[in-house]
Amino acid sequence: MSRGVARRRALAAAAALAAVVALLAASLAPAAAADDEPAPVVPATPLLSARRLPGVLQGAAADPRLAQQLDRYLDKAAGTTCAVVLDKGRVAYQREPDAVQAPASVLKLLTATAALEVLGADTRLATVAGSASPMSDGVVDGDLYLVGGGDPLLTTPGYEASFEDPDQLVQPFAALADALVAAGLKEVRGGVVGDDSRYEQTRWVPSWPERYQGQGSVGPLSALLVNDGLTGFVDSPDQKNTKRRPGDPPALAAQTLKTLLVERGVRVSGGGSAGRAPGDVAEIARLESRPVSELVAEMVRDSDNETAELLTREMGLHAKGQGTTAAGVQVIGEALAGLGYDTAGLAMNDGSGLDPADRAPCPLVLDLLVRTGRDSTIGQAMPVAGTTGTLRERMADSPATGRVQAKTGSLNTVNALAGFADTPPGNALTFLMIQNGSQPNGQTWADRYADLLMGYAEAPPLSALGPLAPTSS
């Protein structure tokens, strides 16, 4: 039986059921009142009328039209597409809803959910500066140790100037130099040593394609990360530099801190290097990260791969004592299962979704959207079409502008959107679309899918379908 025939039969059955309900409701209507009694108030709409479920009536008219439009559009792309549209929890459209797909950066929704659960929304990650022995009269008699705590947002103004999104969240690294000066530091008789031993020193997830290392989509991973571990800002932290390339993150951070200290009048005898701090380092100053809730929001809004990967390693350290990607992805799966999500079919090699071999079941992603909701930390962080984050320059001047709030996902063979939409006719939708394979126009193809949702529901408005006002008999 074809899909169209099945829909027509379903609509016919619904109409027949509505007729039966109406007859039954009429049989239950109250008898007329006696002449000397006040006329009772009688509902104009019988209690068992289908009018008391206006959303269902509207959907009966609008769902087939939406299905026709989306099917015709999604049929143009090769491969498989999982797509579901919910209207206030009711399935208005679905296509391969049980598929397990490569999610690309939509995977970050799972990482975000686990990070809030495992690490806690208010937790902060500390970058610490100290010495082997306590500072005396403003002098560190030896090396100044810079110990990374996993903050992914440490930056200097020169690097910030290169951001595509001018509103991207940062944590100014210079604040640590200011804190050291405020603590009384005047001289370092050694050098500055950067320690990133909190996490594994594997700079790239081994299963990632090698091309990632030169594309700029992700920098080298480290627990001590300034300017995403890219060169070009050591000597002039406040100046723009287009000749950036991946470097040794802890050494770059140490060298940059030395520059910032010298600019503030602190004498530093040695250079900046990578190394290991003594276990009993005497803290002089620290720089707290933004709370995990804000790190998660930045990760979702700007699809920040470094943030996703460092949070993954932090979860591994927190829950299993191992600051590794492998431990972190295991913790993510366990955290989701502990929250009641069905993780069967979930396969994660990283926390960002960059790995082409990552797989996420569409029902899991949809369940997460429904349970999280648009008013949550994650929901509010999702980019707004034509306005913020990774959608800032997408869906601009389109029907979806300002109406779609969704997490994006893009790889060579993946295009995905998952989130929420408010349609002009007044319907609040939750939707998911993950396409694996080739498509005509990349991200533009996914954006057109969101535009098509804006026509839902072009059917009689709910106000015209709802219960009628009561009358007197």
Q: Can you give keywords for this protein?
A:
Beta-lactamase, 473 residues, 17% strand, 14 helices, D-tyrosyl-trna(Tyr) Deacylase, Chain: A
Structure description:
This protein is of the alpha/beta class. The chain has 3 domains: 3-60 and 467-472, no CATH class; 61-117 and 297-453, Beta-lactamase (3-Layer(aba) Sandwich), CATH 3.40.710.10; 124-290, D-Ala-D-Ala carboxypeptidase C, peptidase S13 (D-tyrosyl-trna(Tyr) Deacylase, Chain: A). The protein is built from 14 helices and 19 strands. Strands 3-2-18-17-16 form a 5-stranded antiparallel sheet, sandwiched between helices. A 5-stranded mixed sheet has the order 13-11-7-5-14. A hairpin with a 2-residue loop joins strand 2 (80-87) and strand 3 (90-95). Helix 3 crosses helix 10. The relative contact order is 0.18. Residues 1-35 and 47-53 have low confidence and may be disordered.
Brief summary of the model shown:
This protein has helices at 3-27, 54-74, 108-118, 157-160, 174-182, 212-215, 249-263, 292-302, 305-320, 325-338, 362-372, 377-381, 443-453, 462-465; strands at 41-42, 80-87, 90-95, 100-101, 126-131, 139-140, 144-147, 154-155, 171-172, 187-188, 192-195, 267-268, 272-274, 282-288, 360-361, 404-411, 414-422, 428-436, 471-472. The chain has three domains: 3-60 and 467-472, no CATH class; 61-117 and 297-453, Beta-lactamase; 124-290, D-tyrosyl-trna(Tyr) Deacylase, Chain: A, CATH 3.50.80.20.
Q: How confident overall, as mean pLDDT?
A: 88
Which CATH architecture of the largest domain?
Answer: 3-Layer(aba) Sandwich
Low-confidence stretches: 1-35, 47-53
Could you state the CATH homologous superfamily of the largest domain? DD-peptidase/beta-lactamase superfamily
Distance between the termini: 48 Å
CATH topology of the largest domain: Beta-lactamase
Provide the gyration radius in Å: 29 Å
